[in-house]
Design brief:
This protein is an alpha/beta fold. The chain folds into 2 domains: 140 residues, Rossmann fold; 88 residues, no CATH class. The strands form 3 sheets. Strands 6-7-9-8 form a 4-stranded antiparallel sheet. Strand 4, helix 6 and strand 5 form a beta-alpha-beta unit. The protein is elongated, with a radius of gyration of 21 Å. It starts with 5 loop residues before the first strand and ends in a 7-residue tail after the last strand. The structure holds iron/sulfur cluster. The site of iron/sulfur cluster has 12 residues, from loops.
Length: 254
């Protein structure tokens, strides 16, 4: 692993465990892909919510219980869920509990890692609506990680596209998806099924899958990129600013 991640001036990649515990929950809320794995199956929802509140000394006893129950109401669940175990809930209810837990102390930043990818398509929209409402009402910044460009368009302001662990393009979501500058972004968008667009795009990557543990030198996309030249093989492109966008390609698309 290389690089650093700063949050409010603290390098979280080098912070102590006690510092990370203090930041998590209070300043940063985490929502994971699989709510069944992120909740403790042996403890009630209520005790897991109260643990977050009491650990951060936000309230104790009856006050903590009241806060926990109001957080359940805020994500559209009944107060009675407080007494339930995770296995007694549906996937959508569990993800609502996970959101309530992440937001209970009103953090100013959320990391949501594929929060709807394991949910039934019919309930994804309601979970995204809850996240969107909290984002608006509490002015929370969100880092939303997804493989689904349609979800990214729905929830994002700025979009960063990654290939083999590196950002290759970044910018306002509508610009990136409307007029991609990086060949990987273009291929990604063109591979999306669309009800409106039935014709196939001519822009395709070659069918080569590099080893992510030992990626190619130079540009990581060059073995599969139809625009690759010798320069791409030898020199790794860095992110360059083009208007409101940043793109890492020697020959960005027009
Ligand atoms: S730098 Fe070269 S190989 Fe890499 S994406 Fe751009 S054109 Fe393709």
């Amino acid at each position: 692993m290389e690089g650093s991640i700063f949050f409010n001036g603290i390098d979280v990649t080098r912070a102590s465990d006690s510092m990370l515990r203090r930041i998590r929950g209070k300043d940063i809320g985490m929502i994971f892909q699989d709510p069944m794995a992120s909740l403790d199956p042996l403890r009630t929802v209520g005790s897991q919510l109260m643990e977050v509140i009491e650990d951060h000394e936000a309230a104790y006893g009856r006050d903590a219980e009241k806060l926990a129950k109001s957080s359940l109401l805020s994500v559209g669940l009944s107060e009675n869920i407080f007494y339930s175990y995770p296995h007694q809930l549906s996937g959508g209810q569990r993800q609502r509990v996970a959101i309530a837990r992440a937001l209970i102390l009103k953090p100013n930043f959320i990391v949501a890692d594929e929060p709807v990818s394991m949910l039934d398509v019919s309930i994804r929209a309601s979970i995204l609506d809850i996240l969107e409402r909290f984002k608006r009402e509490l002015s929370i910044s969100t880092l939303f990680i997804t493989h689904d460009l349609a979800v990214a368009r729905l929830v994002g302001n700025r979009l960063a596209i990654m290939y083999l662990g590196k950002i290759v393009e970044e910018g306002p979501v509508d610009e990136v998806l409307g007029k991609p500058l990086h060949p990987f972004t273009k291929a990604l968008i063109d591979s999306m099924p669309s009800i409106k667009r039935r014709e196939k795009s001519n822009f395709r990557l070659k069918d080569v899958i590099p080893d992510p543990i030992n990626p190619p030198s130079g540009c990581r996309l060059y073995p599969g990129c139809p625009l690759a030249t010798k320069e791409c093989m030898l020199i790794e492109p860095t992110l360059k600013t083009l208007g409101e966008r940043r793109v890492a390609c020697h020959y960005p698309l027009e």
